Amino acid sequence: MSEYLLRAVDIVKTFTGVKALQGVSLDIKPGEIHCLAGENGCGKSTLIKVISGVYQPDSGYIEFDGHKYTSITPRESIAMGIQVIYQDFSIFPNLSVMENLAFNTELAAGHKLVNKKRMRQIAEEALAKINFEVELDRLVGTLSVAEKQMVAICRALMFNAKLIIMDEPTTALTKKEVAALFEIILKLKAQGIAILFVSHKLNEVFEISERFTIFRSGQLIATGNTSDLDDRKFTYYMTGREFENVKFKPAFEAEKPVLEVKNLTVPGAFEDVSFELKPGQILGITGLLDSGRTELSLALFGLRKVTGGDILVKGKKVSIQSPRDAITAGIGLVPEDRLSEGLFLPQPISENIVISEIDQLSNALGVVDRKARREEVEKWVSELAIATPNPENACSTLSGGNQQRIVLAKWLACKPDVLILNGPTVGVDIGSKHDIHAILQRLANQGMAVIIISDDLPEVLENCSDLLVMRAGKIVARLDPATADEALVLHHMM
Amino acid sequence: MKSLRKTTGRVEFYIGLVFVALCLLIQFRSGQFFTSNNIVDILSAMVVPGIFAIGEFMVIVSGGFDVSFPALASLSAYATTKLFLDMNYEGGVLLPLLVAIAIGAVLGALNGLFIGYFELPAMIVTLGTSSVFKGFMQGTLNSKQLAVIPQGMRNFGTSALFVAKNANSGLTSRMPLTFICFIVVLIVAWFILSCTMFGRGIYAVGGNPISAHRAGFNVKRTRFFLFVFVGMISALAGMCRTCMMQQMHPTNMLGMEMNIIAGVVLGGTAVVGGSGTLLGCMLGTALIVVVENSMILIGIPTVWKDFFVGALIIIGTGISAMRVATANKPGARRLRKEGSR
Amino acid sequence: MNTLQSIYRKDRHIARLVIMMILWLVFMAITRFSKFYSIANFQTIAGKFPEFGLMSLGAMLCMITGGIDLSSVGIANMTSILMALYMRYRAANGAAISGVVIAEVFLIAAAIGFAAGALNGILISKIHIPPILATLGVNQLLTGIALVVTNGKAVSDIPTAFSSAINQKLWKVVPGKRGTMTGLIPVQLLFFIAAAVFVWFLLSRTSYGKKLYLMGTSENVARFSGLKVSRMLIVTYALSGMLAALGGMIMLANYNSARSDYGSVYTLQCILIVVLGGVSPTGGKGKISGVVLSIILLSLLEAGINRFPQISSYYITLIWGAVLLLVMVLNYFVDHPIARKKS
What phi, psi does B149 have (nearest 5°)? Predict the structure, then answer.
């Protein structure tokens, strides 16, 4: 038996002329935790699909357990012991936990009739593998994200898996849930199962993996032991650029606050939240996923019904019932989920940029001033350096970082006094992340008041002038980012 | 968390409640609802819409809409009746039924081909095929009203399982043999949906077609055979209707699709696919059938029928939509999530 | 040639509709030139299609939002019945129906249609009933009202002034009998052109149109972008209702009577036209040019087939369905080359 469980060698895959993979290789040892990292569009997902048999490579081969294959079908891949846990978990929200767990096995066995007893047994065995407890008759749609992931993991384990591929498994998990997931991964490793962990989050790579492989634009850039890797190398491998991190210092101190929040309460989400924000400030708000941080941003933007407390803009009390009210009051929100909240993905870039200010670009009859619209689009495309040959192209043609710039442009075009960003760099590659931070710092220095809501601690510590920590719906700490460190923030968060 | 599961279970409960209330109202106003002959009348009026509703239910669960079944049923039943008339067929009903079902299967396969294998949206495809079926029947087959139907079919339509007599009014109602067809289809559909992997596959495809594919369901084949099955039972319903009416009226069934869809959705079937129960589907259909048939009992002229069915659709779906909307309010969802931990 | 190619590339769907139409026109030219290519024939076509053409324009707006409007026919019939009764009332004392009254009738009809459509919009946006059911229910409800008002009978005896005003042909350049000149352009067509230009203007020049397409792509993102989603939906369905009511008025003029079940085939026909015109049933995509083309294409097909007396006119529905399926399968094969390879 060879040293490696899986070897993907010189894999080339081309899509209608575009080389997605230009001869990459990946080696995984039995029972190791291997991290595959790279920016969006680097070819990570394509390689996973080649390994799991969804795509056939143009050239190159795969060796698994000492056998050589030039191409595999999905069925063969499963039979060999390869399981993929996709980002969306591939589950059926409308069916019970039992059915979700047992379908694959039942179908693989070619059963035509439903045997509840047998399915229940299969499901119970699956849950037992990682000692996960959940009612078998519950609909999966009613489970939390972490529980859904556990269901997906249990299902993957049923096929005597030797290699489990997890595609960005931590994206929607809280810190606690990530910790629980890592425990499971270690447990699996102890059972001799190799894990290919796909991620672009630096801290996760360091925390969990033994070896790593980094891709950039369809090429293998580096592979080796994680212990040999450090921050700077990681960033360099990922982006091919070196970054100088600039700690934000407010350029001026304004007298009057532009936004005052007093005893704001949304039942079930947060209560009694108060803070104030001056022009030129960047306020960080951090907390766990269930701390109420997202709901706070939604409440300030008129998307949650507030039952108590006041919001004052420029000293005047405002009533914010809808996003339109918020925009009128001078508040913009870059939402958490770019794809379902921020962008009209199949629509042109230009439309996405001007949509929120389209009424200002139209006359009293609602007729759009096309010249003004075009100028506005051109202005923002160049100002935020959105990399596109034609602003009439669909947003879906752009990378995550550029897409986030479009969302940013949409709000800047409304000229808000207060810009709230919820997870401004989630799913954004490191290069763009850096650029977006620079843009935010510049905006603040030009006099905008910015709120960054994020659980990316280095991000808030570096870019904010003040930091609030939320826990279980309350503000539990006000910290000075200049003196606070990650450990202190974490201590307040947990 | 349990409350949520109860709520999903409650759709049938609510619709059942409304149904019972309506029955009681009619009974209270007329004293005629819970009489043996009226109940038999309603059950026999359920046969055709009931079978159609089962087919539509399965399609909606799989994540689509079928608007072609009235045209499909008309075409199959017309072609069969005409064929056996021309043959001067004198045998039993079994052969015509089988021929009609076979035609229905072929027409359903056409739907299935476009929807399953070409992955086109079901609603649009069935809109197109419904037009094709109708055109084929009226153009190519040059359909006209057939005042006589073969003897075997006539016997099938007129013979009764039993006859119910209202002791007070002396009115009698026959329970037609076709009711057995309805019951058989109901049982077969129940068996397919809850006891076969194909049936669970329909739910799986309706819930998430990509996941279904990854789990190992053959999504294309599932959709294909679903439409074949729906074609078969729709053709059967068309034959039941023809036999019961003792004549073949080619355009008589056209336009039924909307009320059938309404009944199925009233019964709690999610329009986005993936969830719903046969029980709810039957209750929703029964509700519409009762409104259509029993208004006369409480002295409301039949011209009001459409008005009340329309009002029923709006109020019925409105109530369930409002309930879903409140249940999905972000605040409520959060609280539930916390409760579940 | 290059420009032709670039036009084809820019919008294959519309190009395909144009090609089909040209082929059909050529076919008719070869087989039935004199019967098909007559002014009277085109006038008949142009007088008829605005009935469902107007409804289709409304159905298109609703489909761009990602919804569907199945209530057009119900709205059209209820409005035309009410207006027929209104005109009978106005003419009760032998009073003549003047142009002012006709204008008044159209305004009231538009208002009724607008209100009925707004009801759809409210049910959809405020009560969250799926569009297919809300409009279905409203259709049934309005048809029900129409039935109750008329007892299921046709309302006729309408002052002829209305019908003849709408049925006349303007621009007297066509030589008629005994040296007189008759008109060229049917008034019905003018209504359709006006409505089509109005909708085109709305969609491509106004902020409403821009918002409509984006909202159809994602209602949630629209909400986060500060669009008033509920109001947009209500206005859109109301516009659709208004266009349907105008279609009903054309029907009233063409038949010179109104009944609760006129034009019931139009419900699905409008959806078919809109989809054939390239509007995506999932919303966010679709052009007025495609829909207008598809309306005209189907009218020409129908009129052409009617020139072959030996072919049953019922074949028209067959051809409609076949054209729809054909276009969709063509789109599938051209736009999904990978899928083709797989299957």
Answer: -125, 160
Helix axes B219-245, B197-207, angle to 10 degrees: 110
Looking at chain C, the number of H-run helices and the number of E-run strands are 16, 2
Residue B316 · residue B266 · CB < 8 Å? yes
* Percent of chain B scoring above 90 in pLDDT: 47
Select from B314, B149, B168, B328 the least CA-distant residue to B246.
B149
pTM of the predicted model, to two decimals?
0.85
Contact (CB<8Å) C213/A347? yes
The per-residue pLDDT for B133 is: 94
Residue C226 and residue A324: Cα distance in Å, rounded? 5
Which residues of chain A are under the pLDDT cut of 50? none
Q: Render pLDDT for C149-180 as a digit per residue (tens, 0 to 9).
A: 998 899 988 888 888 888 888 877 777 767 67
A164: CB partners within 8 A, 6+ apart: A83, A84, A85, A153, A156, A157, A188, A193, A194, A195, A196
Tokens read off for C143: 């048809």
- Residue A94 DSSP one-character state: T
* Domains of chain A and any CATH numbers: 6-239 (3.40.50.300), 259-493 (3.40.50.300)
Residue in B with minimal Cα distance to A101 = B215
What are the structure tokens assigned to A52, written together? 């799991």
Q: What angle, 0 to 180 degrees and rounded to 10, lies between the N-to-C axes of helices B69-86 and B219-245?
A: 60
Query: Could you give phi then psi for residue A274, rounded to 5 degrees?
Result: -135, 140
Give the pLDDT confidence of B20-46 residue by residue, as tens digits: 988 998 888 888 888 888 889 999 999
Domain boundaries, chain C: 2-342
Q: How far is CA C178 from the centre of its chain?
A: 37
Residue A423 tokens read as 């997870």
The third-level CATH classification (topology) of the domain covering C2-342 is ABC transporter involved in vitamin B12 uptake, BtuC (1.10.3470)
Q: How many CA atoms, within 13 angstroms, populate the side-chain half-sphere of residue A56?
A: 8
What pLDDT does C6 receive?
Answer: 67
Q: Which residues pair with A479 in a beta bridge?
A: A467
Nearest-CA distance from B44 to chain A in Å?
A: 32
**Based on the structure, what is the number of domains in chain B?**
1
pLDDT at A329: 93
Q: Report how far residue A220's alpha carbon sits from residue B19's, in angstroms, rounded to the nearest whole number.
A: 66
C211 in reach of chain A (CB within 8 A): yes
Helical H runs in chain B?
A: 2-30, 36-61, 69-86, 94-112, 122-135, 151-158, 178-195, 197-207, 209-215, 219-245, 257-266, 278-294, 305-327, 330-340
C245, two tokens:
């009511």
- Whether B127 sits inside 8 A of C134 (CB atoms) is no
Give CA separation, B101 vs A193, B108, B253, in Å.
53, 10, 17
Nearest-by-Cβ selection for B130 from C137, C312, C321: C321
Which CATH number covers residue B189?
A: 1.10.3470
CB contact under 8 A, A322 and C221: no
> Which of B134, B271, B305 is closest, CB to CB, to C130?
B271
Q: How far apart are CA B315 and CA B321, in angstroms?
A: 10
**pLDDT band at residue B326, thresholds of 50, 70 and 90?**
low
Q: Which among C196, C176, C172, C202 is positioned nearest to C184, based on CA atoms?
A: C172
Region class of C128: left (phi > 0), else alpha (psi between -120 and 50), else beta: left
Side-chain-side CA neighbours of B47 within 13 Å: the count stands at: 24
* Torsion angles phi and psi, residue A95, rounded to 5: -120, 165
Which strand ranges, in their side-by-side order, compose the sheet holding A33-37? A82-85, A163-167, A194-198, A33-37, A211-216, A219-225
Q: Does residue A267 sit in helix, strand or coil? A: coil
C-alpha to C-alpha distance for A247 and A244, rounded to whole angstroms: 10
- In chain B, which residue's Cα lies nearest the Cα of C310? B139
